[in-house]
From TrEMBL:
It comes from Ancylostoma ceylanicum. PANTHER family: COLLAGEN ALPHA, PH DOMAIN-CONTAINING PROTEIN. The gene is Acey_s0227.g2803. InterPro entries: ECM_Assembly_Org, VWF_A, vWFA_dom_sf. SUPFAM superfamilies: vWA-like. This is Uncharacterized protein.
């Protein structure tokens, strides 16, 4: 059984530029695993609206994957710099998955803020569960809502808090991906 992973990256005003750069470096550091294990990956940024959407695909070349990660832009539109509309972003993530074939699915939401569209987010998460999409939530910094993050992640083991560095996250997230999505290989 093949597997699909979509990384949903907060690019709104709540994600500091230093954290944004670390998020992109972190995603690039996964390139060897993505290519070696032929994990189908989709990428997208979000703020007011989902943007810089890359459909789910296999990457045969690490540099192509890294280039795609680099194309996720940080929102910098004055004066708002973009709200954190997680509900809209996760709804778009659902659309990226291929439900016509039996594939394991993982959505990874990386955010530094609280959902501006909290009520929509709660109903979208219900849809995620119904479609059997596993979720991981990565809280960057100190301004996320702990209850919201726990609701996004489908279990406590899929919930990660990053205050400064991403070193521990790589090992934990790779363990999650490899255990849930590559054990059948």
């Amino acid at each position: 059984m093949s597997h699909e992973v979509v990384f949903v990256v907060d690019t709104s005003y709540s994600l500091r530029i230093c954290h944004y750069e670390k998020v992109l470096l972190f995603l690039k550091s996964l390139s060897d695993v993505v290519v070696r294990h032929q994990i189908e990956v989709g990428l997208m940024g979000y703020a007011d609206e989902p943007h810089d959407i890359s459909p789910i695909q296999n990457y045969d070349d690490e540099d192509v994957y890294k280039l795609r990660v680099s194309s996720i832009r940080k929102m910098s539109r004055y004066p708002w710099f973009g709200w954190t509309n997680m509900g809209k972003a996760i709804a778009k993530m659902i659309e990226l998955f291929n439900f016509n074939k039996p594939k394991k699915k993982l959505g990874v939401v990386i955010t530094a803020g609280k959902a501006r569209d909290h009520d929509d987010l709660m109903s979208i998460i219900y849809e995620v569960r119904k479609r059997k999409i596993e979720m991981a939530a990565v809280a960057v910094g100190f301004y996320t809502d702990a209850n919201e993050m726990a609701h996004i992640a489908c279990s406590r083991k899929n919930l990660f808090y990053i205050a400064e560095g991403f070193d521990g996250l790589k090992a934990s997230l790779l363990k999650l991906i490899m255990y849930h999505f590559c054990k059948a290989e």
